[in-house]
Design a protein that fits this description.
4-stranded mixed sheet; 19% strand; alpha+beta; 122 residues
Length: 122
């Protein structure tokens, strides 16, 4: 089983829909992690928020050292199978696919089954 961990800065929520503007990257990560957790049996996926789960940061020497060296600007940090694969920004879905071996795509909001020329939703 592949272990995927996302260490994030202090956030009031992990969905990206709180506050005055929606953070698309947070929404994509929420959807991707929900998919890994709920819809597959090949991932152990965890998200750690500096505000609500500070122990996760303190208990991981590589994460703690990186933050101490570079400050909070290094967040978010994505670690796959205990190897830091990206820091300083959320991964794109293409990067997440590359890092995990799973295939992530952004769902189109205007076609329920990916083909707007058919009436598959009716």
């Amino acid at each position: 089983m592949k272990k995927v961990e996302l260490f994030e800065a202090a956030l009031c929520c992990n969905t990206g829909v709180c506050g005055p503007s929606v953070d698309k990257n947070l929404m994509l990560m929420t959807a991707a992690f929900n998919t890994m957790v709920k819809n597959t049996d090949t991932f152990d996926a965890y998200r750690y928020n500096l505000n609500s789960t500070p122990d996760a940061f303190a208990q991981n020497p590589d994460i703690l050292a990186l933050i101490q060296q570079e400050g909070n600007a290094v967040l978010p940090i994505l670690r796959v199978d205990n190897i830091i694969v990206k820091s300083g920004d959320y991964p794109t879905l293409a990067e997440l696919s590359e890092f995990t071996g799973a295939y992530f795509v952004e769902q189109s909001s205007n076609a329920c089954c990916g083909d707007s020329t058919t009436n598959c939703c009716e």
